[in-house]
Fold:
Amino acid sequence: MTMKKTWIVGTRGSKLALRQTQIVVDAMREANPGHEFPIRTIRTTGDTVWDKPLEQIGGKGLFVKEIEEELVRGDIDIAVHSMKDLPAELAEGLVIGAVMVREDPRDAFISTRLAGISELHGGCRVGTGSMRRKAQLQRYRDGIQVVPLRGNVDTRIRKLTAEKLDGIILAAAGIRRLGLEEVITEIIPADIMVPTAGQGAIGIEIRRGDDAAGLLGAIDHDRTHREVAIERAVQAAVGGGCSIPLGIHARLEDDRIDLSLSLGNEEGIILVHEKLTGEAGGEQNLIEKASQILLEHLR
Structure:
């Protein structure tokens, strides 16, 4: 049977989602000459509700549910996601076929008033829609007033001035991919603010056993894929999503794995903030150790 030549790629319609999808499509075209990858934009529930925190309307899965439904039905062949938006458990019959090389996974501080987060003090107003960022920010500096902030990257940057905020926090990867590096005041060190699982990585989701898998090998970045797999395994073990402030970041370096963890409670108080280290090849042991530490504080 001859493999088909046209593969429909599904994505959200935001400027960042489309930019990330174009990165994937360009790489797939280069790796698979003679194949076409038309892009289909899909409106998700998360794109329609902007006046409530994600944890109140269902969490991160709201940015992928409709896309996964179209993938399961066969209306699209490939789905492109920010890995941080994917729930730990995918829809039945779907798998992560590839993960692109990771951009900077850290968070970025943007301010027109301050030179960096070290200048934050009690009473400063900082915008973020993330419970994880809120908890770690308040751990770093007492008395900061966190202002709820949602919307696409451009909208959040505009609100910095419109709402007279002292700063906002966004993922550095999205800002860089949109070519807006000049607005970044400071990249926040990962030991101060541990990124969420999958942050900075683009994932390609396909149907299990589908021919599309044969197109993805050349664009899959092994180290990123392994790092994200570790992060998602820990996330799955503790049931973390938007409902709890949870940062998980793995870094593979030569023969070592560093795994940073940050866990807060519903009041935004940090319960765990530490880094574990293990040997490369010992991922499962490290996953189990990290999961045990986090679960002890969630019971």
